[in-house]
């Protein structure tokens, strides 16, 4: 179990660093709306990530029980690595140029009137359907499946992966809950910084993790 946790931690950290657009939403919800709304958002995100990881592990266990083992894991890592590199290139090419203000999606204005149920649903979809987050979660689950075939150990490793990967998304709610209004200036500054540089952060993180997955997959062939 420990080896599975150690192996999946780099992907979990990558997911945490790559969630900057989601963190911006969490920051907006914390600074503009009641704290219960941001908690609903975080809950949806956690469930979305965990659901994808659980499905991948279930499929891996079924494949292993059928005698297929995990021979597909290296090929999956290479495929996912290539997808991450492609996403990294797209993010880098779409980054704001010097002196250019980053574009803010028009739907962000709707966060002022969003309900807890809708916040939960949006976060769940961001965690489970968004291509970047989906690829990183599948990558993490594949690493766990390749490291251990024991369901209980997989569950613990997946839980650690989800919690570490969600630290940045949950941080605004935690900080606001602990500090109250005193946290608002810091949260507003973090929001402005992430809005400005999230494309660059994403491009670097996705490129590095993608390259590592490709190299790991090639070595395992």
Describe this structure in words.
The structure is a single chain. It is globular and about 50 Å long. It has 221 residues and is mainly α. The chain has one domain. It is built from nine helices and no strands.
Instruction: Name the shape in a single word.
Output: globular
Please state the structural category: mainly alpha
Succession of helices and strands: HHHHHHHHH
- Gap between N and C termini: 24 Å
- Largest β sheet strand count, sense and barrel closure: none
The fraction of residues in strands falls at under 5%
Stretches where pLDDT falls below 50 for ≥5 residues? none
Mean pLDDT: 82
The total of beta strands comes to: 0
Question: What is the alpha-carbon Rg in Å?
Answer: 18 Å
Tell me roughly what share of residues is in helical segments.
over 70%
Q: How many structural domains are formed by the residues?
A: 1
Number of helices: 9
